[in-house]
């Protein structure tokens, strides 16, 4: 049974992913900052922007078959190109773009130890370069940058047999997505875990939807 590690597993999509993994009989570890982990999951209490905490946690965790970089924030109220909260934008980049790379680097020994490990990072349709929208531009940019970083990481890790891909979960009912969203976290968790489980080097560096179909960057 695979060992699944999820960042931000205390609520939202991350918690649903953990619960779905546990229901499959997988070994599940979640990172969280507060609260209770899903029953049966191992918990690592940390902030994903804290590299020292990540290194410590990785040292206490065995081989990891599947890493899902899920933790993320929507960012500040002011993120219009003409009215930008620059501190908030910087925090968005820290959490949504730099942290997934730092998490993957910290747990690389664990991924290497598993053999043929997979890394899936939760991106967003809002990263799509085909839109010229101006709303939430900092969030959009943080996810577009995440896509580029993970695409490059996929190229670097391919010789080691580690597959790295991105997933757009759709619009999901969580604290971030809000009550009007059309998908439940449980619905998308099912598809995302199937995608992660079936991910091979052929899919590395690519961007998928939660139903497993490929989507444009
Ligand atoms: P939620 O706001 O419900 O949950 C966010 C999660 O990220 C929480 O577990 C939170 O932990 C964690 N987190 C945030 N910042 C940090 C940090 N600095 N260190 C550690 N953990 C942190 O969001 P969703 O579940 O909706 O979103 C999950 C992912 O999916 C995000 O990457 C988001 O951008 C993406 N996404 C969501 C969509 C949606 O419609 N919901 C659409 C497209 C993408 P804590 O409880 O400690 O705050």
UniProtKB/TrEMBL annotation:
A GO molecular function held by the record: oxidoreductase activity, acting on the CH-OH group of donors, NAD or NADP as acceptor
Q: Which SUPFAM superfamilies match?
A: NAD(P)-binding Rossmann-fold domains
| InterPro entries from the UniProt entry | NAD(P)-bd_dom_sf, SDR_enzymes, SDR_fam
Q: Which Pfam families match?
A: adh_short (PF00106)
Gene3D superfamilies according to UniProt: NAD(P)-binding Rossmann-like Domain (3.40.50.720)
Query: What is the residue range of the signal peptide feature?
Result: none
Q: Where are the transmembrane segments?
A: none
Family named by the database record = Belongs to the short-chain dehydrogenases/reductases (SDR) family.
Q: What is this protein called?
A: Short-chain dehydrogenase
Its taxonomic placement starts with:
Bacteria, Pseudomonadati, Pseudomonadota, Alphaproteobacteria, Rhodobacterales
């Amino acid at each position: 049974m695979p060992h699944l590690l999820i960042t931000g597993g205390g609520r939202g999509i991350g918690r649903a992913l953990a619960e779905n993994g546990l229901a499959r009989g997988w070994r599940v570890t979640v990172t969280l900052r507060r609260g209770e982990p899903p029953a049966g999951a191992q918990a690592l209490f940390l902030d994903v922007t804290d590299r020292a905490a990540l290194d410590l946690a990785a040292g206490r965790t065995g081989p990891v078959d599947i890493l899902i970089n899920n933790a993320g924030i929507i960012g500040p109220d002011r993120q219009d190109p003409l009215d930008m909260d620059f501190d908030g934008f910087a925090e968005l980049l820290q959490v949504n773009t730099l942290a997934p790379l730092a998490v993957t680097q910290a747990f690389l020994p664990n991924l290497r130890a598993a053999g043929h490990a997979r890394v899936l990072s939760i991106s967003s349709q809002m990263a799509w370069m085909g839109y010229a929208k101006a709303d939430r531009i900092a969030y959009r940019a943080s996810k577009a940058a995440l896509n580029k970083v993970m695409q490059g990481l996929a190229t670097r890790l391919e010789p080691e047999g580690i597959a790295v891909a991105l997933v757009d979960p759709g619009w999901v009912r969580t604290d971030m997505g809000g009550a009007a969203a059309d998908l439940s976290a449980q619905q998308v968790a099912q598809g995302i875990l199937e995608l992660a489980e079936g991910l091979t080097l052929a899919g590395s560096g690519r961007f998928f939807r939660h139903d497993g179909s490929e989507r444009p960057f």
